[in-house]
Here is the input.
Amino acid sequence: MPPEAPRSLNATDIRLDGAVAVVTGGGRGIGRAIARSLGQAGASVAVVARTPSDVDATAAMLTEGGGEAVGIPADVTDGASVDRTMRKVERSFGPITILVNCAGTCGAIGPLWEIEPDDWRRDVDASLLGTFLCARAVLPGMVARRSGRVINVSSYAAIRATPCIAAYGAAKAALVHLTNTLAAETAPFGVSVFAMTPGRVRTAMTEYMLESQAGKQWSVMPTGEWLPAERAGALAVVLSSGRADALSGRFMHVLDDVEELVRRADEIRRDDLYALRLRA
Here is the structure.
């Protein structure tokens, strides 16, 4: 569990030169912060999202800062779109070494029995199906090269009963389990897989949860301190660097002391901590 007050996460000394990163949901908010942090650390970054103006704006921020970036409009819930995107990234920068699955929506707000099936499916597909399709596209190359890192952006809604956003919470819980399982599948091939939560960050999605008619009616936005999106970027850099590979398969918060968790990695693996489990 994260500490009460934010700790500094030192990622400033980490370099990712030569790495090629894909960040879905990278057009704005948390995804944009992660893309910028990876770019500032030296990675070449492909920014992927549905809105062309958003991905172009994020890519421009990175290139104006001296980095290498490309914006690629794509729908992560469309397998053909995902495959085309990954091929384009590899033509631009070379083999993909880092995948950050940050795309997600929370539009199905209200009691489950009042939610339209299409709205439910949209939230689940954005987080879960999109992650599956993107991972499926890049993992063959990572497995063949016996190297790579996948970071899945989840939420504390995955492990807490949060009424009226059941689709979002279910999808994010599935991501945590998918991370754990995928880490076990890829461990023999030198690939590490992580889940992370950025905490409570002001984004277009959280503004919708606060200000939309449904959000106001059902009060779905948890209270607490707002965290800067840059903390998610710093954690993504640390996880991408290999420093935390001993924690592959685990679910971390941006307020966790990652260095301490790495020191406790044997205990965490032995006791099966930082994963979804039923405790008897």
Q: What stands out?
A: The chain has ten helices and seven strands. Confidence is low (pLDDT under 50) at residues 1-6.
